[in-house]
Amino acid sequence: MKTYLYGIINIGASAFRMAVSEVGKGYIKEIDYLLKPLRLGVDTFSQGYISLEHVKYAATILRGFKCKLDEYGIKHYKAVCTSGVREAGNKDFFIDYVKIHAGIDIIILEPSEEVYIKYLAAKLSVAGFDNMEKEGVVFANIASGNITLSVTKGDNILYSGALPYGSLRLRQMFRHISPLKRHKAFDQYAENMVATVAGIINKKVKVKNLVGSGSSINMMLRIFKPKDKFILREDLEKLYNKIRVYTKQELVDELALRDDEAEVLVPTLCIYIHLLKYTGADRFHFSPVDFPTTLTQFYTGSLKDCCYHKRIKNTTLALGERFNINTMHARRTAKFAKKLFMEFDDLHSLDKSRYDILEMASFLYQVGEYIDAKQTAYNSYYIIKSISIPGISSRDIFLTACVVYNMNSILSQDESIEGNYLSPEEKLMINKLSCILRMAVSFDASKTGLIEDIDIVQNDNMIIINAKAVKEPFVELFTFEKVKYTFVETFGIQVDIRTKMIYD
Fold first, then answer.
1. For residue 174, how many other CB atoms are within 10 A of its CB?
2. Average pLDDT, stretch 222-233?
3. Per-residue b/e over 374-392, b at no fewer than 16 CB within 10 Å?
């Protein structure tokens, strides 16, 4: 079996980690692992930026990591950072300094991508995860800076996001409060976190399971020594009630913890207990896979989501339903958009992956009507660009918003959307997808499903769309006449429509 070496560098809020693995088809074996403590999160969460001293020390650590990569002759590696750098006011300086002084290019892992990768790892490593999803599961990765949460039921992601409730962040926020009262602050903050999530999810939807992961898991395993891959709620509460007023030194002495572990144990227990109360579960299951290993699996292609498209579709529709969209109309629009995109592939010459943007736009273009039907495209743009969907990059979310924003016009090469930079290629893609979406919408303009299906006949000079209708689609035909001219301007070919009554 042909193998190669792959390196992962994870720049976290409390430590730098590097894993070197031998990778082959269906095979990953970790052969080296380095950990260097550096609490960038203390800077970021307390003062909003990384101190110059820590920037320089980070470059020193990473220079050592780069030497190790060179020793192994590794050509394939990724260096990613999370909240400790992502939220720092001087993150661009940090990344540039490291590139110059350590020779390492760092990418910032977006919150939606972070939670998606960790969720996939838990899904593959926790026994019975699929059954938990059917009943409803909260997946919580408790890191130093953030808690990445994903609430899933069936194939629908009800909620996903990175929330500022990480254990080190909480410890820093309330560091000036006496240990005798600090746990009360943790409790209030954790209650607020649960209320935030619960307020977004439909109250009729119940979730019954909790799965946890993160750097704190190893600490929890040493403390509780579970025989199975779960820890009971009553054990968590018993320990929490006992140690919640302990000083850091008392925790170190009694539980044989490192200083950094002692600082985050109480907020970690507090968060798990509140999440268990929310789900009503008597235990939480845990994923033993650490983040560098997870990143190696993801970037080498062994961490795959077999239900990706179905999950994205269901999640996007659920987002639209929060804004009272006409779901049947959205489904019909998406069906027509898909047929147009596939049939016109020689006209638009876009990569098939761009269809994901078109489908999301088809499902979400109506959301702005929730605010004001007169400015639907404008309002929808602002709503869409603010959402987060695991597995979809923030740039693709933004481009989806732009497609919807542009439904009433054609972008010129020197034009931007609301001052946001768009490359010439992105502008062209937006124009093409907006044009396809306008036409797809026209086929169900009355939102009554009068046109059941379309067939497309294309030659060098003309495209004829044969619409199969249950009744004369007056509104659809009128709308089509309005949008067909932008189709000609965009694709350079005439288009017309013919209707045929299905039941004549």
1. 18
2. 91
3. eebbebbbebbbebbbbbb
Q: Report the C-alpha gap between 368 and 375 in whole angstroms.
A: 7
For residues 411 and 332, the answer to whether their CB atoms sit within 8 Å is no
Tens digits of residue pLDDT in 134-159: 899 999 888 878 788 888 888 788 88
Kind plus residue range of the DSSP H or E element containing 243: helix 233-243
How many residues make up the chain in this entry?
A: 504
Q: 330: Cβ–Cβ under 8 A, 6 or more apart, which residues? A: 317, 320, 362, 363, 364, 366
Is 391:116 a contact under the CB 8 Å cutoff?
A: yes
Backbone phi, psi, residue 138, to 5°: -100, 120
Pairwise CA distance, residues 143 & 166, whole Å: 5
Distance, CA of 411 to CA of 489 (rounded, Å) = 11
What the block records as the tokens of 297 is 């699996």
Q: Which residues contact 46 (CB under 8 A, 6 or more apart)?
A: 172, 175
Give the model confidence (pLDDT) of 366-389 as tens digits.
Answer: 999 888 877 888 889 999 998 888
Helix (H) or strand (E) holding 459: none
Sheet strand arrangement including 209-213: 156-163, 147-153, 137-142, 209-213, 283-286, 230-232
Burial of 394 (0-12, 13-18, 19+ CB in 10 A): middle
